[in-house]
Amino acid sequence: MACKSCSTGACGSISGDQKVSGCQSNGGCGSGGCNKMNVFDWLTDVDVPTFQRYPIVEIKFKGGRKEYFKNADSLSLHTGDAVMVDTGTGAHLGIVSLQGELVRLQLLKKGIKDDDSIKKILRLATEKDIEKHELSISKDIAAIHRSREIIRDLKLNMKLSDVEHQSDGVKATFYYSSDDRVDFRELIKVLANEFKVRIEMKQISLRQEAGRIGGIGICGRELCCSTWLTDFKNVTTSAARYQNLSLNPVKLSGQCGRLKCCLNYELETYMDAIKHIPTLEGKLKIRKGNASLQKTDIFKRMMWFAVEGEESNWVAVGCDRVAEIIELNKKGIIPESFENLSPDSPVVEKLSISELNSDLERMDKKYAKGGKRNPSQQKGGFRNERRDNRDQRPRDERQGNRDQRPRDQRPREDRPVQGPRVNPPGELKTDNANTNAGQEGNKPKKKFKKKFRPKPNGGNDKSTPSAE
């Protein structure tokens, strides 16, 4: 398909040096050519007699520009045919993009009247017309660079974006953009002397400029303005606010430097969903404190609040519950919390960390009152307790009432005589007869504890006494 929409030639056409011309775009699945303002004529296979066909045809030119022309001679046209049309200043080559009843709908949509102001289609393009057209558009790139140099020399505050030569080489249209009014009378004289053609200056908006140049958007697809979008509606920052988007100019701006047109695509859906979201005029009041709105999920109907003093903890509350709290606040009622709306509910005291970790202390007190042995006293526990119950006074004070004389000079103290040991049942009796075999057998035998034998003479005699 030779769309002729690129300044480098027809897409898919092969030039004399056996190289493929055009923008090197593989095109779409249905068209096989450039995707600049492609349309699908779904009535093209409907067999309609020639005299009953709608006489106006949609013609596409370079940069996706489309105009409507009348097929006064009832030519047999098909989508993609190259035709020569009358532009008022000469003949220009264009491509048939749409015809039939769909064109009637497009005229109604754009408000174009079917009258004598619509120009005519001259004829089908011949090989000579196509060669002349390719020669004319080959001058576009060189004309852009040279024109920008002239504009820079004249110090004009304008940006030249594209140049389109007419197929017959009579006229050249210069597309530019500027924020202020530009006096380009001197520029037109210089350009006419430079290119020897009739000069037409046409100012376009930044969105139209992006559509003519084309590019890839942040979504990874071709720009909407260069593929299908023709009506540029006003886009405001309120569209971003309704959709809870960050008001970052870098993220909200497109390649044209203006707000992205896609911000309006889902705006109506968000507007319908916002109708069911309660409106907050201030902060919500609960017993814990005033809660401020942090985030709203429109489609999940959830709102996140943060209580004063706990801004890091967000609480998710449903929109219905928020509406109930707002009504209670208007009546002067402060609910207990987001979950419990009763104002007279008892206050539940939360345990501190020390109280939650005092299980061991409560267990120690429990066993101490019941007289039970604490598991911590299994090994050396009582010994440590006795050690802790010792006199905590200094050693000098503790020894103040004791006799400071040497042990040999202290008076002897009589120790109580221990009685005979009574063996508990089941314990073997010790027989001292073998040990005292050399002594008299008439004397009564006394039994002493092996471990705690009484020492004769109050312990002063270091000799070992015999057991009597």
Can you put this structure into words, describing what you see?
Residues 365-468 are annotated as: Disordered. The protein has 468 residues and is α+β, with helices and mostly antiparallel strands. Among the domains are: 1-126, no CATH class; 139-211, GMP Synthetase, Chain A, domain 3 (2-Layer Sandwich); 233-275, no CATH class; 277-344, no CATH class. 25% of the residues lie in helices and 15% in strands. The chain has helices spanning 101-110, 127-137, 140-154, 185-195, 206-213, 224-227, 237-242, 249-252, 267-274, 319-330, 353-356, 359-370, 381-388, 395-398; strands at 56-60, 66-70, 82-86, 91-99, 121-124, 159-165, 171-177, 198-203, 284-286, 289-297, 302-307, 314-318. Strands 2-1-4-3-5 form a five-stranded antiparallel sheet. The protein has a four-stranded antiparallel sheet with strand order 9-10-11-12, with helices on one face. A three-stranded mixed sheet has the order 6-7-8, sandwiched between helices. Strand 11 and strand 12 (314-318) form a beta hairpin. Helix 3 (140-154) packs antiparallel against helix 4. The protein starts with 55 loop residues before the first strand and ends in a 70-residue tail after the last helix.
